[in-house]
Amino acid sequence: MAAGSALPAWFGEESRSYAATARPLSPNDKPNIGLVGCGGQGRYDTTLAAKFATVVAVCDVDSKHAEEASKQFNGAKIYKDFRKLLERDDIHAIINGTPDHWHTLINLAAMKAGKDVYSEKPLTLTIEEGKRLVAVARQTGRILQTGSQQRSDARFRLACELARNGRLGKLRQVITSLPAGPRKGPFSAAAVPPELDWDFWQGQTALVPYVRERCHGTFRYWWDYSGGTMTDWGAHHNDIALWGLGLERSGPVTIEGKPLVEMIPGGYTASAEYRVAYTYANGVAHTCQSTSGNGPDGSVRGTPKPGELLHGVRFEGTEGWIFVTRGKIEASKAELLVEPLAPGALRLRVSDNHMGNFFECIRSRKQPICDPEIGHRSVSVCHLGVIAIRLGRKLRWNPEKEEFVGDTEAGKWLARQQRKPWTYDMV
Q1: What's the distance, CA 364 to chain centroid?
Q2: Own/partner long-range contacts of 384-387 (Cβ < 8 Å, ≥24 apart)
Q3: With contact defined as beta carbons under 8 Å apart, do 282 and 418 qualify?
Q4: Residue 238 — φ and ψ, nearest 5°?
Q5: What is the mean pLDDT of the chain?
Q6: What is the radius of gyration, based on Cα positions, of the chain?
Q7: Residue 343 CB: number of other CB atoms within 10 A?
């Protein structure tokens, strides 16, 4: 087995020749940006964006988060309602760091207001949202980069190039291992913190009493607002699986899923441990499974069970396998990695800085490395997995029409009822 963090010399040399060079920004060339969603991830993204742009506004329904962000970004003007921020003609783009259930409404409003968007992943809460988002991006011509930053990591690109060029022989299977989610509860209702507009935060979802664990850093472990680690880490690793299969604008044809543990009544609702089996029209099988060897943040915990993979993506073919995760790529045989690809081999688009790619595309008006359709299709695989887990049976899917085949009950899960006034009409 060949393993390590270093990339083969041939790949680095060739990647430099394929990389697009961004035009240097002059002091007068910096776009103005606003941050919507001032939690930890939003502020982290905006710290990266501030290397390319000037942060002039921040927005959050939690006044403490907004105040902290304003202090961090040189006194940027504070807003509570993102629509007021979008009214500013001097803002060219936004960073959307809100919880998943707010991504689409804000992204739609921003593009309709003439702003480009860097949106955190997962791009949407439902597949129907993604279809709307792709349509509006095309209609408006705005740039939307999905924050699936593994597309801008050379190790993941190398694994996908090798898989797509037949280095593993005929591909048989892809395994995406995702960190297991938390299994905790029951939780108690509490008084809403004075700095938080709980009604606005809940947005399109059903109005429920405030529970601290529903909000901020742990929102994603509730079906109401997200899909657990399936849509969190799955939006990263399943994206790479599709890229390596050459199906990043398509999807599976069957899905079968099941939860592996029962959740605690009154606690987190998104399945903590699960297994989903997909098949694609080309015959490749794809297993997406939780791994107890990683905690929700990706950190290693305990000892993995025998044969259990830590989180990452494994491509398996008739000639061997390649496993890739953050900071590491390994293969069943050293030569799978170290032998250069032949002249004329398929090469994938190069981006070595995900945020930099976004700002490069703001100037060039070319589509980013993770454009709206790619982001939509990647998270659609995750949404399909969530639906299969919740229904507990095999589903058939038409990736061209983006609909279930002969299954009215499953079709009801493609969209969600939106609570007024937080509907598409508001944007």
Answers
A1: 24
A2: 384/127, 384/251, 384/252, 384/255, 384/278, 385/230, 385/234, 385/238, 385/255, 385/257, 385/274, 385/276, 385/278, 385/288, 386/223, 386/227, 386/228, 386/230, 386/231, 386/257, 386/270, 387/255, 387/257, 387/413
A3: no
A4: -70, -30
A5: 94
A6: 21
A7: 5
Contact by Cβ (8 Å): 208, 189: no
Predicted pLDDT at 1: 62
CA distances from 297 to 21, 97, 106, 197, 233 (A): 33, 17, 26, 27, 9
* Token duo for residue 227: 């899909």
Q: What is the pLDDT of residue 4?
A: 65
Beta carbons of 336 and 322 less than 8 angstroms apart: yes
User: What's the distance, Cα to Cα, between the start and end of the chain in Å?
Assistant: 53
pLDDT higher than threshold 90 for residue 43? yes
Q: Which structure tokens are listed for 320?
A: 């061997």
Q: Which helix (H) or strand (E) holds 330?
A: strand 328-331
Amino acid at 18: Y
3-state secondary structure 272-323: CCEEEEEECCCCCEEEEEEECCECCCCCECCCCCCCCCCCEEEEEECCEEEE
> What span, in angstroms and rounded, lies between the C-alpha atoms of 189 and 198?
13
User: Token digits for 146?
Assistant: 């999905």
- By percentage, how much of the chain surpasses pLDDT 70? 94
Length of the chain: 427
Identify residue 348 by its one-letter amino acid code: L
Token pair of 85 as six digits: 């921020």
C-alpha angle 401/396/122, rounded to 5°?
Answer: 65
Cβ atoms within 10 Å of 90's Cβ, excluding its own: 10
Cβ-based neighbour number of residue 169 at 10 Å? 11
CA distances in angstroms from 107 to 128, 246, 320, listed in the order given: 14, 27, 42
Helix 354-364 crosses helix 40-49 at what angle (to 10 degrees)?
60
Rounded to whole angstroms, the Cα distance separating 402 from 183 reads 32
Assessment of whether the complete model's pTM goes beyond 0.90: yes
The Cα–Cα gap between 305 and 291 comes to: 9
Q: What is the pLDDT of residue 305?
A: 72
The 274-279 sheet, strands edge to edge: 2-4, 328-331, 320-325, 312-317, 171-179, 285-291, 274-279, 254-259, 394-398, 403-404
Residues 15, 41, 103, 253, CA torsion sign: positive
> Per DSSP, which regions of 127-223 are E strands?
144-146, 171-179
